[in-house]
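User: I'm writing a tutorial on reading structure tokens. Could you give me a worked example: one chain, its sequence, then its tokens, then a sentence or two explaining what the tokens reveal?
Assistant: Sure. Here is the example chain.
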Amino acid sequence: MDRRIRYVHQLIGSCHKRRALGMEANMTIVLLLIPLGLVLVAVAAWALFWAVDSGQYDGDVEAQGLIAVEGDEPSSSSVVHSG
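And here are its predicted structure tokens:
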């Protein structure tokens, strides 16, 4: 039991040392970064749902590919017949 109490006293002592050195301010940044991260995730989720709802991902993907493959059809006046 004495060994466990010693570890608790070491932990408490290290907290007092950090406070004396002014290191407790390093942990307060977490209070800013966690909400900031949650807001960033919420904005990203909103942007995804907005893009889906506004039709950004609608359309026929195969039809767009066929447009690129077909290209311009040669007109009958530009065809040269040899003969």
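What the tokens reveal: The radius of gyration is 33 Å. The mean pLDDT is 74.
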